[in-house]
Design goal:
about 80% helix
């Protein structure tokens, strides 16, 4: 039984080391968490996007200290550095659909900007609350 526990600890330690060193493994873990959350949302029929549930799950994992946010630093930096690639297809669609430059486009722009502001504000408040909460534990 002790050898099994020792093996389990070594596997966890190896996974943590690999996660900290590999941006690809970090991105794969984030995508896997998102896919699990998306599957859970579809299975339960929740009216919430899978990404939001995945973000909540990731915050829970960080709060329980199963993983450290530093474990995802390289992958997050890589995704943020390449974020422009995610917007290029949307820009090409705008050039193909001229009606987007009228009232329809203005309405869509307001919805997108409003949604982005809401997501950013919610994320900022969540991060601020978690920082305050983790600061209490340190004292």
């Amino acid at each position: 039984m002790e050898t099994l526990m020792l093996f389990w600890r070594r596997c966890r330690l190896g996974l943590r080391r690999g996660l900290r060193r590999s941006a690809c493994l970090q991105i794969a873990a984030l995508v896997a968490l998102w896919l699990l959350a998306e599957g859970l949302v579809r299975q339960l029929g929740l009216p919430v996007p899978g990404g939001i549930v995945g973000l909540g799950a990731l915050l829970l994992v960080f709060a329980l200290r199963w993983w450290s946010p530093l474990s995802f630093a390289r992958g997050a930096r890589l995704l943020l550095a390449e974020m422009l690639l995610f917007f290029i297809p949307a820009a090409m669609i705008l050039l193909d659909n001229r009606q987007m430059f009228g009232w329809l486009g203005l309405k869509l722009l307001l919805v997108v900007v409003g949604g982005t502001v809401l997501v950013m504000a919610t994320t900022a408040v969540t991060v601020e609350l978690l920082l305050r909460w983790s600061g209490r534990d340190a004292h």
